[in-house]
């Protein structure tokens, strides 16, 4: 028969090993949890610090480059030019000067005139501290009397991305034709149907009409009368056609002017018979 030894309590009255094992286990678990938490905090703080360090470094590296890039700045004196009083046969040209007071190249991206009669040429890029020009030319015989031509310009200047250039003036014809260079003869055959055209010279010296040519002499008669010698003439056109229906022709006038050596008047006839029972 085997005898079993009964363990005794410790002298201080506490239980033995079971209580001691529980306390030790709790201490080990608590220590492990604290170590794990400290480990996470350490690496979390290190990650955040690394990201901040990289971001600050990137800004420090890019900062001087961004500052050095700068921006263009367009400066232009007058955006409107007045030609004053001119003759219609002249090409009208003006150059608008643009300065770049910025720190980056100024680019003229687009020049858009409001009329096909205006041609443009310009410096596409103006360096910092430099100046360039936009030259606009209105073609001859494109304007008459008081006129205004506008051109829109697009730039890469962030503060002034667009501007408008305007050219104005008063164009006087060498030979003014009133009321028009077209004569219309409407009526019944046998009626006295006529039209008039007045030619006034604005040339500084004497001016004459030396010859008149009629392309339809069987249908109209033409008479030229001087109203003011060497300056104003009146052309009278009379219908002599006695049949109903339309016709067309022209009257050509030769002059002593080098600027306008030839003038044309177009004639349109429209003769109709009275309707049945009408007057």
Structure description:
By secondary structure, the protein is α+β, with helices and mostly antiparallel strands. The chain folds into three domains: 13-69; 74-172, Immunoglobulins (Immunoglobulin-like, Sandwich), CATH 2.60.40.10; 175-271, Immunoglobulins (Immunoglobulin-like). The chain contains one helix and 17 strands. The chain has one helix at 17-69, and strands at residues 74-76, 80-87, 92-100, 106-113, 118-122, 125-126, 131-138, 145-155, 162-172, 175-178, 182-187, 194-201, 209-214, 220-228, 232-239, 245-255, 262-271. The protein is elongated, with a radius of gyration of 49 Å.
The CATH topology annotation of the largest domain reads as: Immunoglobulin-like
Shape type:
elongated
Identify the CATH architecture of the largest domain.
Answer: Sandwich
Beta content comes to over 45%
Q: Please identify the structural class as seen in this structure.
A: alpha+beta
Number of domains: 3
Oligomeric state of shown chains = single chain
The tally of strands reads 17
Helix content: 10-25%
Number of helices: 1
- Give the rounded overall mean pLDDT: 83
Q: Helix and strand layout, with pairings?
A:
Blueprint: H1 17-69, E1 74-76, E2 80-87, E3 92-100, E4 106-113, E5 118-122, E6 125-126, E7 131-138, E8 145-155, E9 162-172, E10 175-178, E11 182-187, E12 194-201, E13 209-214, E14 220-228, E15 232-239, E16 245-255, E17 262-271
Parallel strand pairs: 2-9, 11-17
Antiparallel strand pairs: 1-3, 3-7, 4-6, 4-8, 5-7, 8-9, 10-12, 12-15, 13-16, 14-15, 16-17
